[in-house]
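quick one before i forget lol
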Amino acid sequence: MHRQTSCAAIKHMALGVYGFGCEDALVHLLNYVWPNIFETSPHLVQAFMDSIEGLRVALGPMKILQYTLQVCFLIFFTMHLLLKEVTNVNVGCILFQGLFHPARKVRDVYWKIYNSLYIGGQDSLVAGYPRLPNDSKNSYIRAELDYVL
């Protein structure tokens, strides 16, 4: 009951201070809301999703995407140094901890949040996706995002 009420209060606070420059305080509140991601009570799940939606509006979809993806870049330094000298190719591995978790219950919650983000702000998510190096078959670089006026 108390967590549900606090999620509803955070949603309304986030929507109320949208555009006032309170992003640091809202990220602090997001850190209090986010541990409720795996709750099973239907009322708390709905309150959690509502607070995430309110924080998406106030903070922007990219900040919530960072929490959803939880991207960890692992660079194998010895292989990187060896391959860079030989072929001049960047080596890295990207782990999406939430969206591609082995447990279905974890994946379901993260995909629900990601789908909500995609519906609410798909155009602003493009710049938040991680950079992938090109390989021999595919070109992943989006040069248009590197333009500076």
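fyi The two ends are 50 Å apart (CA to CA).
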